[in-house]
Protein backbone atom coordinates (compact mmCIF):
# COMPACT_ATOMS: atom_id res chain seq x y z
CA UNK A 1 0.00 0.00 0.00
CA UNK A 2 1.54 3.38 -0.90
CA UNK A 3 2.11 5.78 1.99
CA UNK A 4 -0.75 8.20 2.38
CA UNK A 5 0.26 11.82 2.08
CA UNK A 6 -0.70 13.26 5.43
CA UNK A 7 -2.85 16.32 5.78
CA UNK A 8 -1.21 19.74 6.02
CA UNK A 9 0.52 20.09 9.37
CA UNK A 10 2.59 22.71 11.11
CA UNK A 11 5.75 21.17 12.47
CA UNK A 12 7.29 23.27 15.23
CA UNK A 13 10.83 22.05 15.70
CA UNK A 14 12.13 23.04 19.15
CA UNK A 15 15.93 22.93 19.15
CA UNK A 16 16.28 23.56 15.42
CA UNK A 17 19.97 24.46 15.59
CA UNK A 18 20.86 21.41 17.66
CA UNK A 19 22.87 18.41 16.54
CA UNK A 20 19.88 16.11 16.09
CA UNK A 21 17.86 18.64 14.11
CA UNK A 22 20.64 19.56 11.71
CA UNK A 23 22.05 16.07 11.31
CA UNK A 24 18.87 14.01 11.19
CA UNK A 25 15.56 15.87 11.30
CA UNK A 26 15.96 18.41 8.51
CA UNK A 27 17.47 15.84 6.13
CA UNK A 28 14.58 13.48 6.95
CA UNK A 29 12.03 16.22 6.25
CA UNK A 30 13.77 17.06 2.98
CA UNK A 31 13.63 13.38 1.97
CA UNK A 32 9.91 13.28 2.70
CA UNK A 33 9.46 16.35 0.53
CA UNK A 34 11.57 14.76 -2.20
CA UNK A 35 9.38 11.66 -2.09
CA UNK A 36 6.30 13.91 -2.38
CA UNK A 37 5.11 12.79 1.04
CA UNK A 38 4.63 16.25 2.50
CA UNK A 39 1.30 17.92 1.92
CA UNK A 40 1.75 21.13 -0.02
CA UNK A 41 0.35 23.08 2.92
CA UNK A 42 2.83 21.64 5.43
CA UNK A 43 5.01 24.25 7.16
CA UNK A 44 8.10 23.86 9.34
CA UNK A 45 8.78 26.33 12.13
CA UNK A 46 12.45 26.17 13.09
CA UNK A 47 12.70 27.36 16.70
CA UNK A 48 15.99 28.20 18.30
CA UNK A 49 17.36 30.65 20.83
CA UNK A 50 20.72 31.07 19.15
CA UNK A 51 20.29 32.65 15.74
CA UNK A 52 18.61 36.06 15.89
CA UNK A 53 18.42 36.70 12.16
CA UNK A 54 15.94 34.36 10.46
CA UNK A 55 17.88 34.49 7.16
CA UNK A 56 21.07 33.33 8.91
CA UNK A 57 19.07 30.62 10.64
CA UNK A 58 17.65 29.40 7.34
CA UNK A 59 21.06 29.54 5.69
CA UNK A 60 22.46 27.29 8.39
CA UNK A 61 19.74 24.71 7.82
CA UNK A 62 20.31 24.85 4.07
CA UNK A 63 24.04 24.43 4.58
CA UNK A 64 23.43 21.43 6.86
CA UNK A 65 21.25 19.86 4.16
CA UNK A 66 23.88 20.40 1.50
CA UNK A 67 26.45 18.75 3.76
CA UNK A 68 24.32 15.75 4.71
CA UNK A 69 22.58 14.83 1.48
CA UNK A 70 24.17 12.68 -1.18
CA UNK A 71 24.85 14.43 -4.47
CA UNK A 72 22.08 12.60 -6.33
CA UNK A 73 19.61 13.42 -3.56
CA UNK A 74 20.22 17.15 -3.69
CA UNK A 75 17.79 18.66 -6.13
CA UNK A 76 17.88 22.48 -6.17
CA UNK A 77 14.19 22.69 -7.06
CA UNK A 78 13.19 20.52 -4.12
CA UNK A 79 15.61 22.30 -1.83
CA UNK A 80 14.01 25.59 -2.75
CA UNK A 81 10.52 24.16 -2.24
CA UNK A 82 11.60 22.78 1.13
CA UNK A 83 13.19 26.08 2.22
CA UNK A 84 9.99 27.87 1.29
CA UNK A 85 8.18 25.76 3.88
CA UNK A 86 10.58 26.99 6.56
CA UNK A 87 9.98 29.83 8.93
CA UNK A 88 12.60 30.57 11.60
CA UNK A 89 11.94 32.03 15.00
CA UNK A 90 14.23 32.88 17.88
CA UNK A 91 12.78 32.05 21.27
CA UNK A 92 13.59 30.77 24.73
CA UNK A 93 11.44 27.69 25.22
CA UNK A 94 11.15 28.39 28.94
CA UNK A 95 9.86 31.93 28.46
CA UNK A 96 6.05 32.08 28.33
CA UNK A 97 5.85 35.37 26.42
CA UNK A 98 8.00 34.00 23.57
CA UNK A 99 5.09 31.70 22.69
CA UNK A 100 2.99 34.66 21.50
CA UNK A 101 5.19 34.96 18.43
CA UNK A 102 5.04 31.21 17.89
CA UNK A 103 1.26 31.22 18.09
CA UNK A 104 0.99 34.03 15.58
CA UNK A 105 2.93 31.89 13.09
CA UNK A 106 0.47 29.00 13.28
CA UNK A 107 -1.95 29.96 10.59
CA UNK A 108 -3.53 26.63 9.58
CA UNK A 109 -6.25 24.64 11.33
CA UNK A 110 -4.43 21.32 10.89
CA UNK A 111 -2.45 19.48 13.56
CA UNK A 112 0.51 21.15 15.23
CA UNK A 113 3.43 18.79 15.71
CA UNK A 114 5.66 20.04 18.52
CA UNK A 115 8.93 18.14 18.14
CA UNK A 116 11.07 18.56 21.27
CA UNK A 117 14.64 18.10 20.02
CA UNK A 118 15.90 19.58 23.27
CA UNK A 119 17.22 18.24 26.54
CA UNK A 120 14.40 16.50 28.45
CA UNK A 121 14.46 19.10 31.22
CA UNK A 122 12.77 21.54 28.81
CA UNK A 123 9.90 19.20 27.79
CA UNK A 124 7.67 20.22 30.72
CA UNK A 125 8.02 23.94 29.99
CA UNK A 126 7.26 23.47 26.29
CA UNK A 127 4.09 21.52 27.11
CA UNK A 128 2.97 24.01 29.74
CA UNK A 129 3.44 27.06 27.50
CA UNK A 130 1.81 25.44 24.46
CA UNK A 131 -1.21 24.61 26.62
CA UNK A 132 -1.30 28.05 28.22
CA UNK A 133 -1.50 29.52 24.72
CA UNK A 134 -4.48 27.37 23.85
CA UNK A 135 -2.54 25.08 21.51
CA UNK A 136 -2.83 21.76 23.42
CA UNK A 137 -5.88 20.38 21.69
CA UNK A 138 -4.45 20.42 18.18
CA UNK A 139 -0.92 19.36 19.19
CA UNK A 140 0.92 16.06 18.88
CA UNK A 141 3.93 16.30 21.15
CA UNK A 142 7.09 14.44 20.14
CA UNK A 143 9.66 13.70 22.85
CA UNK A 144 13.22 12.64 22.20
CA UNK A 145 14.98 10.01 24.26
CA UNK A 146 16.22 9.49 26.89
CA UNK A 147 13.15 10.47 28.92
CA UNK A 148 14.91 11.36 32.18
CA UNK A 149 17.92 9.67 33.73
CA UNK A 150 16.11 7.27 36.06
CA UNK A 151 12.62 6.12 36.97
CA UNK A 152 11.83 9.08 39.21
CA UNK A 153 12.97 11.75 36.77
CA UNK A 154 11.16 10.03 33.89
CA UNK A 155 7.97 9.93 35.96
CA UNK A 156 8.31 13.65 36.66
CA UNK A 157 8.75 14.39 32.95
CA UNK A 158 5.85 12.14 32.00
CA UNK A 159 3.66 13.78 34.66
CA UNK A 160 4.59 17.26 33.46
CA UNK A 161 3.63 16.27 29.91
CA UNK A 162 0.46 14.47 31.01
CA UNK A 163 -0.79 17.60 32.80
CA UNK A 164 -1.44 19.08 29.37
CA UNK A 165 -1.48 16.18 26.88
CA UNK A 166 -3.27 12.83 27.02
CA UNK A 167 -1.15 9.79 26.12
CA UNK A 168 -2.91 9.61 22.73
CA UNK A 169 -1.17 12.88 21.77
CA UNK A 170 2.31 11.92 23.00
CA UNK A 171 4.91 10.39 20.65
CA UNK A 172 8.05 9.21 22.48
CA UNK A 173 10.82 8.58 20.01
CA UNK A 174 13.11 5.60 20.03
CA UNK A 175 14.58 5.95 16.58
CA UNK A 176 15.45 2.25 16.42
CA UNK A 177 11.73 1.56 16.05
CA UNK A 178 11.79 3.62 12.85
CA UNK A 179 14.49 1.48 11.22
CA UNK A 180 13.10 -0.69 8.42
CA UNK A 181 14.96 -3.76 9.67
CA UNK A 182 13.61 -3.30 13.19
CA UNK A 183 10.03 -3.09 11.90
CA UNK A 184 10.86 -6.18 9.89
CA UNK A 185 11.22 -8.12 13.15
CA UNK A 186 7.44 -8.06 13.44
CA UNK A 187 7.01 -9.36 9.88
CA UNK A 188 9.70 -12.01 10.34
CA UNK A 189 8.21 -13.32 13.55
CA UNK A 190 4.51 -13.08 12.93
CA UNK A 191 4.19 -13.62 9.18
CA UNK A 192 6.30 -16.82 9.20
CA UNK A 193 4.79 -19.66 11.17
CA UNK A 194 8.09 -21.50 10.57
CA UNK A 195 9.80 -19.30 13.16
CA UNK A 196 6.99 -18.66 15.56
CA UNK A 197 6.53 -22.36 16.34
CA UNK A 198 10.22 -22.56 17.26
CA UNK A 199 10.33 -19.35 19.25
CA UNK A 200 10.62 -20.50 22.85
CA UNK A 201 12.72 -22.19 25.51
CA UNK A 202 12.10 -25.62 24.01
CA UNK A 203 13.89 -24.68 20.80
CA UNK A 204 16.15 -21.69 21.49
CA UNK A 205 19.28 -22.04 23.59
CA UNK A 206 20.24 -18.36 23.82
CA UNK A 207 19.90 -14.98 22.18
CA UNK A 208 22.53 -12.29 21.51
CA UNK A 209 21.80 -8.64 20.85
CA UNK A 210 24.75 -6.49 19.83
CA UNK A 211 24.67 -2.79 19.02
CA UNK A 212 28.28 -1.82 18.41
CA UNK A 213 29.24 1.67 17.29
CA UNK A 214 32.54 2.93 15.93
CA UNK A 215 31.81 6.55 16.84
CA UNK A 216 32.95 8.03 20.13
CA UNK A 217 30.90 10.68 21.86
CA UNK A 218 31.20 13.17 18.99
CA UNK A 219 31.57 16.32 21.11
CA UNK A 220 28.55 15.38 23.27
CA UNK A 221 30.55 15.09 26.51
CA UNK A 222 28.14 17.27 28.52
CA UNK A 223 25.23 14.98 27.72
CA UNK A 224 27.04 11.68 27.47
CA UNK A 225 29.03 11.83 30.68
CA UNK A 226 25.78 12.23 32.62
CA UNK A 227 24.12 9.44 30.68
CA UNK A 228 26.64 6.72 29.84
CA UNK A 229 25.95 3.88 27.45
CA UNK A 230 23.39 2.34 29.78
CA UNK A 231 21.07 5.36 29.58
CA UNK A 232 22.05 6.34 26.04
CA UNK A 233 21.52 2.95 24.39
CA UNK A 234 20.58 0.08 26.70
CA UNK A 235 17.57 1.60 28.47
CA UNK A 236 15.93 2.38 25.16
CA UNK A 237 17.24 0.87 21.91
CA UNK A 238 18.47 -2.49 23.21
CA UNK A 239 15.49 -3.07 25.47
CA UNK A 240 13.14 -2.24 22.59
CA UNK A 241 14.93 -4.80 20.41
CA UNK A 242 14.71 -7.33 23.23
CA UNK A 243 10.97 -6.68 23.54
CA UNK A 244 10.36 -7.15 19.82
CA UNK A 245 12.27 -10.44 19.87
CA UNK A 246 10.73 -11.78 23.06
CA UNK A 247 7.14 -10.52 23.07
CA UNK A 248 4.14 -12.75 22.52
CA UNK A 249 2.18 -12.28 19.29
CA UNK A 250 -0.03 -9.20 19.56
CA UNK A 251 -3.64 -9.78 18.57
CA UNK A 252 -3.42 -7.06 15.92
CA UNK A 253 -1.05 -4.35 14.74
CA UNK A 254 -2.55 -1.48 16.68
CA UNK A 255 -0.22 0.59 18.82
CA UNK A 256 -1.63 -0.56 22.13
CA UNK A 257 -1.73 -4.27 21.25
CA UNK A 258 1.99 -4.16 20.43
CA UNK A 259 2.87 -1.98 23.40
CA UNK A 260 0.89 -4.22 25.81
CA UNK A 261 3.00 -7.19 24.72
CA UNK A 262 6.25 -5.25 25.04
CA UNK A 263 5.34 -4.14 28.55
CA UNK A 264 4.79 -7.77 29.58
CA UNK A 265 8.37 -8.56 28.54
CA UNK A 266 9.79 -5.60 30.48
CA UNK A 267 7.84 -6.66 33.57
CA UNK A 268 9.20 -10.20 33.26
CA UNK A 269 12.87 -9.20 32.95
CA UNK A 270 14.85 -10.83 35.75
CA UNK A 271 16.00 -8.07 38.11
CA UNK A 272 19.75 -7.58 38.29
CA UNK A 273 20.34 -7.58 42.03
CA UNK A 274 23.81 -7.15 43.65
CA UNK A 275 24.28 -10.96 43.58
CA UNK A 276 23.79 -10.87 39.82
CA UNK A 277 25.86 -7.73 39.21
CA UNK A 278 28.79 -9.86 38.06
CA UNK A 279 26.63 -10.49 35.01
CA UNK A 280 27.04 -6.85 34.07
CA UNK A 281 30.29 -5.63 32.52
CA UNK A 282 30.80 -1.90 32.17
CA UNK A 283 33.70 -0.59 30.10
CA UNK A 284 35.34 2.69 29.12
CA UNK A 285 37.42 3.09 25.98
CA UNK A 286 41.05 4.10 26.08
CA UNK A 287 43.06 5.50 23.17
CA UNK A 288 43.26 3.25 20.15
CA UNK A 289 42.45 3.06 16.46
CA UNK A 290 39.06 3.48 14.91
CA UNK A 291 38.69 2.71 11.23
CA UNK A 292 42.42 3.11 10.74
CA UNK A 293 42.71 6.44 12.58
CA UNK A 294 44.25 7.06 15.99
CA UNK A 295 41.56 8.24 18.41
CA UNK A 296 41.78 9.51 22.00
CA UNK A 297 40.47 7.65 25.01
CA UNK A 298 37.21 8.69 26.66
CA UNK A 299 39.05 10.55 29.41
CA UNK A 300 41.04 12.50 26.83
CA UNK A 301 38.04 13.67 24.82
CA UNK A 302 37.42 17.42 24.58
CA UNK A 303 35.89 18.81 27.81
CA UNK A 304 36.61 15.50 29.57
CA UNK A 305 36.73 15.20 33.31
CA UNK A 306 39.61 12.83 33.84
CA UNK A 307 38.00 11.19 36.88
CA UNK A 308 34.85 10.15 35.08
CA UNK A 309 33.65 6.59 35.70
CA UNK A 310 30.92 6.79 33.08
CA UNK A 311 30.65 3.63 30.99
CA UNK A 312 30.98 3.77 27.21
CA UNK A 313 30.29 0.04 26.95
CA UNK A 314 27.96 -2.31 28.72
CA UNK A 315 27.38 -6.04 28.33
CA UNK A 316 25.10 -8.21 30.40
CA UNK A 317 23.35 -11.51 30.68
CA UNK A 318 19.70 -11.51 31.60
CA UNK A 319 16.65 -13.76 31.50
CA UNK A 320 12.95 -13.32 30.98
CA UNK A 321 10.87 -14.95 33.62
CA UNK A 322 7.91 -16.40 31.79
CA UNK A 323 6.82 -19.70 30.21
CA UNK A 324 8.15 -18.88 26.79
CA UNK A 325 11.65 -17.90 27.85
CA UNK A 326 12.39 -19.56 31.17
CA UNK A 327 16.07 -20.60 31.29
CA UNK A 328 17.07 -18.89 28.01
CA UNK A 329 19.91 -16.38 28.52
CA UNK A 330 19.76 -13.12 26.61
CA UNK A 331 23.23 -11.59 26.16
CA UNK A 332 23.17 -7.88 25.40
CA UNK A 333 26.07 -5.59 24.61
CA UNK A 334 26.55 -2.11 23.27
CA UNK A 335 29.51 0.22 23.14
CA UNK A 336 31.13 3.22 21.54
CA UNK A 337 34.44 3.05 19.66
CA UNK A 338 34.11 -0.64 19.00
CA UNK A 339 35.76 -2.62 16.23
CA UNK A 340 32.90 -2.35 13.79
CA UNK A 341 29.52 -0.66 13.41
CA UNK A 342 27.16 -3.55 13.80
CA UNK A 343 23.62 -3.98 15.10
CA UNK A 344 22.65 -7.60 15.06
CA UNK A 345 20.46 -10.14 16.77
CA UNK A 346 21.48 -13.78 16.80
CA UNK A 347 19.03 -16.48 17.79
CA UNK A 348 20.82 -19.72 18.61
CA UNK A 349 18.63 -22.80 18.34
CA UNK A 350 19.12 -25.89 20.45
CA UNK A 351 20.81 -29.03 19.20
CA UNK A 352 18.56 -31.78 17.79
CA UNK A 353 17.23 -34.03 20.58
CA UNK A 354 19.24 -37.05 19.43
CA UNK A 355 22.61 -37.09 17.75
CA UNK A 356 23.49 -39.52 14.92
CA UNK A 357 26.53 -37.92 13.22
CA UNK A 358 30.26 -38.22 13.87
CA UNK A 359 31.08 -37.08 17.40
CA UNK A 360 33.76 -34.60 16.22
CA UNK A 361 31.11 -32.69 14.22
CA UNK A 362 28.83 -32.25 17.16
CA UNK A 363 29.87 -28.67 17.89
CA UNK A 364 28.77 -27.74 14.36
CA UNK A 365 25.19 -28.70 14.91
CA UNK A 366 23.35 -25.61 15.92
CA UNK A 367 21.02 -23.61 13.73
CA UNK A 368 21.30 -19.88 14.01
CA UNK A 369 19.13 -17.09 12.79
CA UNK A 370 21.11 -13.92 12.23
CA UNK A 371 19.21 -10.70 11.86
CA UNK A 372 21.58 -7.94 10.76
CA UNK A 373 19.89 -4.62 11.44
CA UNK A 374 22.72 -2.43 10.16
CA UNK A 375 24.83 -2.08 8.12
CA UNK A 376 24.39 -4.59 5.22
CA UNK A 377 20.87 -5.43 6.37
CA UNK A 378 20.19 -9.13 6.00
CA UNK A 379 18.56 -12.18 7.48
CA UNK A 380 20.54 -15.41 7.43
CA UNK A 381 19.44 -18.79 8.64
CA UNK A 382 22.39 -21.09 9.21
CA UNK A 383 21.42 -24.64 8.31
CA UNK A 384 23.27 -27.94 8.23
CA UNK A 385 23.81 -29.74 4.92
CA UNK A 386 25.98 -32.60 3.70
CA UNK A 387 29.31 -31.77 2.10
CA UNK A 388 29.00 -32.54 -1.62
CA UNK A 389 31.20 -35.11 -3.38
CA UNK A 390 31.91 -38.81 -3.66
CA UNK A 391 34.88 -38.46 -1.36
CA UNK A 392 32.71 -37.01 1.40
CA UNK A 393 30.73 -39.29 3.65
CA UNK A 394 28.06 -37.83 5.88
CA UNK A 395 30.26 -34.87 6.57
CA UNK A 396 28.29 -31.88 7.73
CA UNK A 397 28.63 -28.31 6.68
CA UNK A 398 26.90 -25.23 8.02
CA UNK A 399 25.81 -22.68 5.44
CA UNK A 400 23.49 -19.70 5.31
CA UNK A 401 20.13 -19.31 3.62
CA UNK A 402 20.51 -15.60 3.22
CA UNK A 403 18.35 -12.65 2.27
CA UNK A 404 20.35 -9.48 1.65
CA UNK A 405 18.01 -6.54 1.60
CA UNK A 406 20.17 -4.37 -0.65
CA UNK A 407 20.20 -7.12 -3.28
CA UNK A 408 16.58 -8.14 -2.86
CA UNK A 409 15.28 -4.58 -3.06
CA UNK A 410 17.89 -3.06 -5.35
CA UNK A 411 15.85 -0.16 -6.61
CA UNK A 412 14.38 0.72 -3.23
CA UNK A 413 16.10 3.34 -1.11
CA UNK A 414 16.16 2.37 2.58
CA UNK A 415 14.78 5.41 4.39
CA UNK A 416 16.38 6.78 7.51
CA UNK A 417 14.50 5.97 10.72
CA UNK A 418 13.55 9.61 11.27
CA UNK A 419 11.82 9.78 7.89
CA UNK A 420 9.54 6.95 8.90
CA UNK A 421 8.93 8.38 12.38
CA UNK A 422 8.13 11.89 11.13
CA UNK A 423 5.73 10.44 8.59
CA UNK A 424 4.01 8.35 11.25
CA UNK A 425 3.54 11.38 13.53
CA UNK A 426 2.07 13.31 10.61
CA UNK A 427 -0.33 10.42 10.06
CA UNK A 428 -1.18 10.32 13.78
CA UNK A 429 -0.03 6.71 14.11
CA UNK A 430 1.55 5.79 17.46
CA UNK A 431 2.70 2.22 16.60
CA UNK A 432 6.37 3.10 16.40
CA UNK A 433 6.46 5.23 19.53
CA UNK A 434 7.02 4.25 23.12
CA UNK A 435 4.22 4.39 25.69
CA UNK A 436 4.75 5.93 29.12
CA UNK A 437 4.63 2.59 30.98
CA UNK A 438 7.21 1.04 28.63
CA UNK A 439 9.64 3.84 29.44
CA UNK A 440 8.99 3.49 33.14
CA UNK A 441 9.35 -0.31 33.31
CA UNK A 442 12.57 -0.03 31.35
CA UNK A 443 13.87 2.53 33.85
CA UNK A 444 12.79 0.43 36.83
CA UNK A 445 14.94 -2.44 35.56
CA UNK A 446 17.88 -0.21 34.61
CA UNK A 447 17.79 1.63 37.95
CA UNK A 448 18.16 -1.65 39.77
CA UNK A 449 20.99 -2.68 37.47
CA UNK A 450 22.87 0.57 38.10
CA UNK A 451 22.21 0.42 41.84
CA UNK A 452 23.63 -3.11 41.94
CA UNK A 453 26.77 -2.02 40.09
CA UNK A 454 27.19 0.95 42.42
CA UNK A 455 26.66 -1.23 45.45
CA UNK A 456 29.59 -3.42 44.36
CA UNK A 457 31.75 -0.31 43.83
CA UNK A 458 32.08 -1.34 40.20
CA UNK A 459 34.39 0.80 38.02
CA UNK A 460 34.33 0.48 34.24
CA UNK A 461 36.95 -1.81 32.76
CA UNK A 462 39.28 -0.37 30.16
CA UNK A 463 39.09 -1.45 26.54
CA UNK A 464 41.04 -0.11 23.57
CA UNK A 465 39.16 1.96 21.04
CA UNK A 466 38.67 -0.26 18.01
CA UNK A 467 38.27 -3.49 19.99
CA UNK A 468 35.20 -5.56 20.90
CA UNK A 469 35.11 -4.26 24.47
CA UNK A 470 36.70 -5.37 27.74
CA UNK A 471 37.97 -8.94 28.07
CA UNK A 472 35.45 -9.46 30.84
CA UNK A 473 32.62 -9.10 28.33
CA UNK A 474 34.05 -12.02 26.38
CA UNK A 475 34.36 -14.02 29.59
CA UNK A 476 30.72 -13.19 30.40
CA UNK A 477 29.57 -15.43 27.56
CA UNK A 478 32.47 -17.91 27.31
CA UNK A 479 31.92 -18.95 30.91
CA UNK A 480 28.58 -20.33 29.70
CA UNK A 481 30.42 -22.29 26.96
CA UNK A 482 29.40 -19.82 24.21
CA UNK A 483 30.91 -16.95 22.29
CA UNK A 484 29.69 -13.70 20.74
CA UNK A 485 28.81 -14.50 17.15
CA UNK A 486 30.99 -12.87 14.53
CA UNK A 487 33.74 -11.33 16.68
CA UNK A 488 37.21 -11.72 15.26
N1 LIG B 1 22.14 14.16 18.72
C1 LIG B 1 21.75 12.91 18.59
O1 LIG B 1 22.30 12.11 17.81
C2 LIG B 1 20.62 12.39 19.40
C3 LIG B 1 19.92 13.20 20.26
N2 LIG B 1 18.85 12.70 20.96
C4 LIG B 1 18.08 13.55 21.85
O2 LIG B 1 17.63 14.68 21.14
C5 LIG B 1 17.58 15.81 21.98
C6 LIG B 1 18.44 16.90 21.36
O3 LIG B 1 19.76 16.42 21.29
P1 LIG B 1 20.90 17.21 20.52
O4 LIG B 1 20.40 17.79 19.28
O5 LIG B 1 22.05 16.28 20.46
O6 LIG B 1 21.23 18.35 21.58
P2 LIG B 1 21.81 19.80 21.27
O7 LIG B 1 22.28 20.33 22.56
O8 LIG B 1 22.73 19.78 20.12
O9 LIG B 1 20.50 20.58 20.81
C7 LIG B 1 19.50 20.97 21.70
C8 LIG B 1 19.04 22.33 21.27
O10 LIG B 1 18.02 22.77 22.17
C9 LIG B 1 18.25 24.13 22.45
N3 LIG B 1 17.69 24.53 23.73
C10 LIG B 1 17.85 23.95 24.93
N4 LIG B 1 17.16 24.63 25.86
C11 LIG B 1 16.57 25.67 25.23
C12 LIG B 1 15.73 26.72 25.64
N5 LIG B 1 15.33 26.86 26.90
N6 LIG B 1 15.32 27.60 24.72
C13 LIG B 1 15.71 27.50 23.43
N7 LIG B 1 16.51 26.51 22.98
C14 LIG B 1 16.91 25.61 23.87
C15 LIG B 1 19.76 24.25 22.49
O11 LIG B 1 20.11 25.58 22.32
P3 LIG B 1 21.56 26.09 22.77
O12 LIG B 1 22.49 25.51 21.78
O13 LIG B 1 21.42 27.56 22.73
O14 LIG B 1 21.79 25.54 24.16
C16 LIG B 1 20.18 23.35 21.34
O15 LIG B 1 20.22 24.03 20.11
C17 LIG B 1 18.05 15.35 23.34
O16 LIG B 1 16.92 15.02 24.12
C18 LIG B 1 18.87 14.12 23.03
O17 LIG B 1 18.90 13.22 24.11
C19 LIG B 1 18.44 11.40 20.80
C20 LIG B 1 19.09 10.57 19.95
C21 LIG B 1 20.25 10.96 19.20
O1 LIG C 1 20.24 7.39 20.29
C1 LIG C 1 21.41 7.29 19.99
O2 LIG C 1 21.74 6.52 18.93
C2 LIG C 1 22.98 6.66 18.28
C3 LIG C 1 23.16 5.39 17.45
O3 LIG C 1 22.16 5.34 16.48
P1 LIG C 1 22.39 4.59 15.10
O4 LIG C 1 21.11 4.77 14.38
O5 LIG C 1 23.57 5.25 14.44
O6 LIG C 1 22.68 3.17 15.43
C4 LIG C 1 24.10 6.83 19.27
O7 LIG C 1 25.33 7.07 18.60
C5 LIG C 1 23.78 8.00 20.17
O8 LIG C 1 24.81 8.13 21.14
C6 LIG C 1 22.47 7.77 20.87
O9 LIG C 1 22.09 8.93 21.59
Could you please describe the fold and organization of this structure?
There is one protein chain. The protein is 35% helix and 20% strand. The protein is built from 14 helices and 17 strands. α9 packs across α10. It starts with 9 loop residues before the first strand and ends in a 10-residue tail after the last helix. With 488 residues, the chain is α/β, with parallel strands linked by helices. The model has no long low-confidence stretch (mean pLDDT 93). It has helices at 19-34, 54-68, 76-85, 98-105, 123-132, 151-162, 180-190, 193-196, 221-246, 255-268, 405-408, 417-427, 436-455, 471-478; strands at residues 10-14, 43-48, 86-90, 112-116, 139-143, 170-172, 204-212, 280-286, 288-290, 293-295, 313-318, 330-335, 342-349, 368-374, 378-386, 396-404, 461-464. It folds into two domains: 10-144, 3-Layer(aba) Sandwich (Rossmann fold); 184-412 and 436-478, Dihydrodipicolinate Reductase, domain 2 (2-Layer Sandwich), CATH 3.30.360. α6 links the parallel β5 and β6 (170-172). The strands form three sheets. The chain has a nine-stranded mixed β-sheet, with helices on both faces. Strands 3-2-1-4-5-6 form a six-stranded parallel β-sheet. Strands 9-10 form a two-stranded antiparallel sheet. The radius of gyration is 24 Å and the shape is globular. The longest helix has 26 residues, at 221-246. It binds NADPH dihydro-nicotinamide-adenine-dinucleotide phosphate and ligand LXAUTJHC. Residues 15, 17-20, 48-50, 92-94, 117-120, 122, 144-146 line the site of NADPH dihydro-nicotinamide-adenine-dinucleotide phosphate.
